[in-house]
Every structure is written in C-alpha cells, then in structure tokens.
Design a protein that fits this description.
The protein has four helices and eleven strands; from the N terminus they run E-E-E-E-E-H-H-E-E-E-H-H-E-E-E. It is globular, with a radius of gyration of 15 Å. A hairpin with a 2-residue loop joins strand 7 and strand 8. The protein has about 140 residues and is α+β, with helices and mostly antiparallel strands. This is MOSC domain-containing protein.
Amino acid sequence: MAEIKFIKIKKSKEQARESVDKAYFEENLGLKGDIHSVGGNKQVSILGTESKRIIKEYKSEGLCTVRFEENITTEGIELYKYPVGTRIEIGGAVMEITQLGKKCFKGCSISEASYKCALITECIFAKVIKSGWVKNGDKIDIIYK
C-alpha cells in the first residue's frame, strides 16, 4: 500500500528539518510554515523510502545527499515513474507533480565517482492544488495521469 511514512518541515535556514505527525498543505503555497512555502512549482519535495535506501548505499556522500531532505517520505509507490502533471491525493490535500528529479551540484563526489544518484531521477517536486491536512500513514492515491 502506498502511504506517507514521514513529514518534515524546515522553519528557518538555521534549523534542521523537524519531523511532524501531521501538517497543513496550503493551495498555491506548499507546506504551511516551511521555509520553502512561497509558491512556484517546487512547493513540496517528495522522496520514497526505496530511493533513500539507494542513497545510503553510496560509497561516498554527495553535496545533495548531505544537504537535501524531502518534505514527504513515501513508501510503496514510485511516484517518479509518473509524468509531470499527475495529480496525487494524500489525506485531504491534492498535489500535482511539477518536476521529476533534482539537479546535481558541481563537484559532487557521487557524480564524479560515476554513480547514478537517486535524487537526479527519483526525487519529485509538486505544487499544492487543493489545501488539506496530511498525516503520517495517510494513503496516497493517483487521481489523474
């Protein structure tokens, strides 16, 4: 079953991301209270537990894998296999996939070692289409492909 494992919010640059049991996702803005909740196409970052396992298996740490932490961690679904424009319903919120993959920083030890970084292909970004509460354990439904 596809579900939410973790929700994380970063309130300021100085603070680390904080795990929360539930959070409010606001239409056209993103995760309420998150430093990146400013609108645009990269309002929410999503990564699966399966992708996180791949990242942990790298023999070195890259700039992205050290600095990047997603807002939503999923399990049981490979959202990166769905095209941009796919809509997903999670709890009371609806989000639309806007970007597949994250750009790698120059000088990244993972790319220099010729490893295929999971963040480049498996991280996704979404925008909030319908506001709502999302909590850990919520089911993920694909509502538009």
